[in-house]
Write a structure and sequence with these properties.
The structure holds two protein chains of two kinds. Chain A is an alpha/beta fold. Chain A has a domain of 168 residues: Rossmann fold, CATH 3.40.50. Chain A contains nine helices and twelve strands. In chain A, strands 8-9-10-5-11-12 form a six-stranded mixed sheet, with helices on both faces. In chain A, strands 4-3-6-7 form a four-stranded antiparallel sheet, covered by helices on one side. In chain A, strands 1-2 form a two-stranded antiparallel ribbon. In chain A, a hairpin with a 6-residue loop joins strand 1 and strand 2. By secondary structure, chain B is an all-alpha fold. Chain B has one domain. In chain B, helix 1 packs across helix 5, helix 1 packs across helix 7 and helix 3 runs parallel beside helix 7. Chain B is elongated. The mean pLDDT of chain B is 94. The chains are: A alpha/beta, B mainly alpha. The interface between A and B is medium-sized, with 21 and 14 residues. Bound molecules: adenosine-5'-diphosphate (ADP) and magnesium ion. Magnesium ion binds next to helix 1 of chain A.
Chain lengths: 268, 250
Amino acid sequence: MTSDSSTRSPFSEAQTPAVSVNIEGLSKNFGDLVVLRDITLKVESGEIFVLMGPSGSGKSVLLKHIVGLEQPTAGRVLVDNRDATDPATREQVRMALVFQAGALFNSLSVYDNLALYPRENRLASEDGIQEKVMRALQILSLEGKAQKFPSELSGGMKKRVAIARALVMEPQLMMYDEPTSELDPIMSATISEIIATLKDEYHVTTIVVSHDRDLALNIADRVGILMGGKLAAIAPPAELRASTDPRIQDFLNPRIDLKNPRFKHLET
Amino acid sequence: MKQLTNICAGIGSAVLLLGKSIGHAPTLLRQWPRFIEQCYLIGYTTLPIVAILSFFIGSVLALQAGYSMQSFGAKEFIGSLVGLSMARELGPVMVAILVAGRVGSAITAELASMKVYQEIDALETMNIPPSRILVLPRLAAVLVMMPVLTIIGDLVGWLGGAIVSKYTPFIALEPEKYFETLRRFMKFKDVLNGLEKAEVFGFFVVLVCCSIGLETRGGPREIGASVTRAVVVSLILILVLDYFVTKILI
Ligand SMILES: Nc1ncnc2c1ncn2[C@@H]1O[C@H](COP(=O)(O)OP(=O)(O)O)[C@@H](O)[C@H]1O
Ligand SMILES: [Mg+2]
């Protein structure tokens, strides 16, 4: 049933066209701080694009532009050929962002966290909502946690709940902000598997911000590396591994050198 | 100069938030449970402290009035004095100050922490405006609860005054006399004016506290700073509004 150009719903047979993301000459300053400089990038519909880069290089800011939480200083972002800053875009294209810290609603149970979106947007009856929520929890093996509160969950579970909450939105575009940071290696691998599985089964366009090399090199269709506000490289993982650019090699395989430690010549 | 622009920006965002929330007013009916929860938080939790403080304010008023009036034998007017001061001025102002300290600070802390931990961003990406589910129910609830709290404050204050007037040796005014002058010199309009004031104070306190909470930027440290700012701004606002609203109502 899956065709290459449409997203399947996790909850029904419904299919919607997968969306692409076009970033055209995007620059962003916060006052004097230049965070993004003239970034141009196209994420194809149905691909997994992994964006890597050092901390503070502007990865989260880039994601916020795609969901329309930040306004570009220059350039524009198109999601499914609609301007991301236009509030109507969010109504026409279903996008979900899994925030780095989860951003679960602390005052609501896991069940209510997942049910909030369909309830508030009146997308289904309470029975229909329950069905969706339980299905999303089941996909992420969280059935037993419906009545727990976020404060009662471990880090890995919070991430999975956050992913489940995004899934309930039946997204055409799914974004993850550092989904494996702060997790142990096994849980990181689990999350990588979840991301790849969701993309395979439902064919959602997926953008992952991460500096998890295993995740990037194993599940990405293409990897972009953001450095100093610019894209230093965009390439499939295999090409990236073979890259001869010393900055990229150093970022992907940093050598721990105690004779000539890096922190001694960091610019301040 | 920078402070002036900050104040203007603050007023701007509060006005904007007000507009957005009012725009969502038709959704209030289906947010019934949230509205009831906020009524409970605003009304029920502030009630004990409103009662205690009103009682003592009424008592002190009676004591002071009795002390200054004993020399010219006008002590039966204590009732009207306590009654009018409570209803027109002290009741509404005191309830507003308590709401700012007890409820406003909690609102700012909650919204600021939701902002800092990106829950607000998450709501935006889910197409759920914070003004609709977080601000509107609180504004509606405070409009309902302020008159209730103020009337209870007035009644308890009058009662406090009556008790002190009866049992203080140098006053020794019988409650019948006390309430007789209270009724004779006070019109329904006096109580109503007080309730209108309370309504205005409560509404703007909650609006400002919501706005300051949602405008919080930065990390967890800023939550505390926002709460302090919200309480200070609320207190100033109450007293400034008090002057202008009184002038209009008189
Ligand atoms: N709202 C903001 N106001 C000011 N500076 C910001 C804001 N958001 C992010 N920044 C700055 O932008 C830079 C990039 O941040 P971010 O995108 O979070 O980095 P990362 O790549 O680690 O996700 C950082 O220096 C950060 O301080
Ligand atoms: Mg980040």
